[in-house]
Automatic annotation (TrEMBL):
One of its GO terms (cellular component) is cytosol. One of its GO terms (biological process) is lysine biosynthetic process via diaminopimelate. This is Diaminopimelate epimerase. The record marks 150, 199 as: Could be important to modulate the pK values of the two catalytic cysteine residues. Pathway: Amino-acid biosynthesis; L-lysine biosynthesis via DAP pathway; DL-2,6-diaminopimelate from LL-2,6-diaminopimelate: step 1/1. The active site is at residues 73, 208. Its main location: cytoplasm. Gene3D superfamilies: Diaminopimelate Epimerase, Chain A, domain 1 (3.10.310.10).
């Protein structure tokens, strides 16, 4: 018995999306990791299951490539909005979101960022606007929860940062009890920021929607950028809007690569 899935991506951050609104699907961390494997599975950064919701139009569940279930995924939220095909509310473990498809993608209200050390979460109390710790050249990060936990390091030159080496070290530091997503960002001007992300549970990706949100919020809050910022990721740009005290709006593309069929029993 096979099950259909949609291979989708947002700026190259790719997903296997299972629509379980009518036929339930029992996902487990082990099955998610097996399906996400790029050699023996479908291959993706995150696996997404769209389910019915009692409080929203749909519920979106998210598993990283390593099988960990997580609270938020910005790029996948746009893909789910494109799949639903109309303005909709989306229940996630990180909060209730609202999204509207449009153009080649969607615009999403990602909710309000949180800055409290226990909301990130960090292991103990400290100033989250400039963490008093460092990992080699990466120091003074801002910690933000935008549904999921992020660090943002502003650096003079993005290309000088060995993120593939420092990313996993920071992700798994005991300071972060739930691990953390690691963003490095370079401010180009008040409307443009370049960024790269080491994603918790997935590694380096071509784009991270929540990473772009965290980066823009950190830049705006530090007075380095205006309220609308284009975050330029390796896979392309996302537009992020935020005002202090308000919700984050993220706008960008959502692409359907193909629809396939897979025998899930072969992966269990
Ligand atoms: N690619 C995503 C983020 C996916 C989850 C993240 N790796 C985590 O563990 O929190 C995005 O577009 O936001």
């Amino acid at each position: 018995m096979t099950r259909s899935f949609h291979k989708m991506h947002g700026l190259g951050n790719d997903f296997a999306v299972f629509d379980a609104r009518e036929t339930p699907l029992a996902m487990t961390p082990a099955l998610a990791a097996a399906l996400a494997d790029r050699h023996t599975g479908i291959g993706c950064d995150q696996l997404i299951v769209v389910e019915p919701s009692t409080i929203a139009d749909v519920r979106m569940r998210i598993w990283n490539a390593d099988g960990s279930e997580v609270e938020a995924c910005g790029n996948a939220t746009r893909c789910v909005a494109a799949l639903v095909g109309r303005e909709c509310s989306i229940e996630t473990a990180g909060g209730l979101l609202s999204a509207a498809p449009g153009g080649d993608g969607a615009s999403v209200d990602m909710g309000a960022p949180r800055f409290g050390w226990e909301e990130i979460p960090l292991a103990y109390a400290m100033d989250t606007t400039a963490l008093p710790v460092g990992w080699e050249m990466l120091e003074g990060a801002t910690a933000i929860n935008v549904g999921n936990p992020h660090l943002v390091f502003f650096v003079p030159d993005l290309d000088d940062v060995p993120l593939e080496r420092l990313g996993p070290q920071i992700e798994t530091d005991p300071l972060f009890p739930n691990r953390i997503n690691v963003n490095v960002a370079q401010v180009i001007d008040r409307g443009r920021v370049r960024a790269r992300t080491w994603e918790r549970g997935a590694g380096l990706t071509r784009a991270c929607g929540t990473g772009a949100c965290a980066t823009a919020v950190a830049a705006i809050r530090a007075g380095l950028a205006d309220n609308e910022v284009t975050v330029e990721l390796p896979g392309g740009p996302l537009v992020i809007e935020w005002r202090s005290g308000g919700n984050i709006r993220m706008t960008g593309p959502a692409t359907l690569a193909y629809t396939g069929e897979i025998d899930l029993e072969a992966f269990r």
